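[Q] Does anyone have a clean structure-token version of this?
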Amino acid sequence: LRGDSLLPFPCPLPRGGVSAITQSRAGEIWIGSNENIGIYSLRTRGFKWFSIDSTGHNYVTGLHLDRGGDMLASTSDGVIVRYQGHVPVEQYRLAEHRAIHGLLDDGRGNFWATSSAGLFLIKHQDFRKENVVHYHVQNGLPEEYSGPALIDREGNLWLGTLSKGLIRLAEPELVRLQLDDLERFYNIDAVEDNGGRLWVGALHGLWEVRRDTTGAWEKFYHRCPAPLNGEHYVSMADDHGIALWLADAAGDISKLSIIPDGDGPSLLKPECTLVGGKDFPKGTPLCLMVDAQGRLWCGLHSVGIAVIDPNTRKLLALTPPETRTTGT
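[A] Here you go.
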């Protein structure tokens, strides 16, 4: 197809129709068909045909050029054949007698293979068993069949299925962030607000962790007026994504509103403080939660669970003494 004209091109297929087509680094056009691979030379304008490999893996379902310049041919019975030049040098079986539909390069050095047996992640484009992750219905896919695929600009993988529509898979990355003031803790609370910011409690304040406009991680430290809850644990809760509840070392619980401030750290505005021994029973708050009705639930060490209305400061419920345990 050139411009607005269609030019017929005779392709002498030994058998079957064209199932895949791509171009090698040498400029040759590789064509996949039933039981054969064809190579068209733009220089000589001639075709060369040969079997997929010595065992004949049914038919070619896809052709992909890897970062090293090798050609990879996926097949209908779950095998991927690697070619160097025109010579098959290695074979990788991903799915037992189930079709590999295609290979996708995620731009981060990995391959994704769609198939009738689920989805495969090939880390570092290395097909050794320890680098292959198989996704299927037992670990998250809505169905085994994965067909057309796309990786968008944010790095998410989109998949077409036979009966479950379109799905998106966001592959998690392990990001290690060094946060000071956490060394002695064994119980650290962290919550996410409605702006995608992660708040992590530390001994004397809060870490605010977020992505900047380029997608890079950045962190800010907010020092609190009073040390947080004890030397070994921090208790905090998210209030509908716009505020935080924090327990301090004295056993009181304070509410801080989150006010975004452009590219800089957010502002934390004190709203109110619930005083232990006055607004709720005296005890060390070990865990906090805000429910859909805005009530604050507080697990108190050796006391039980208290439910508080922050607006009226009224204690709505407290677990009976006979159900209390030493740890909550």
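[Q] Thanks! Anything notable?
[A] The first strand starts at residue 18 and ends at 23.
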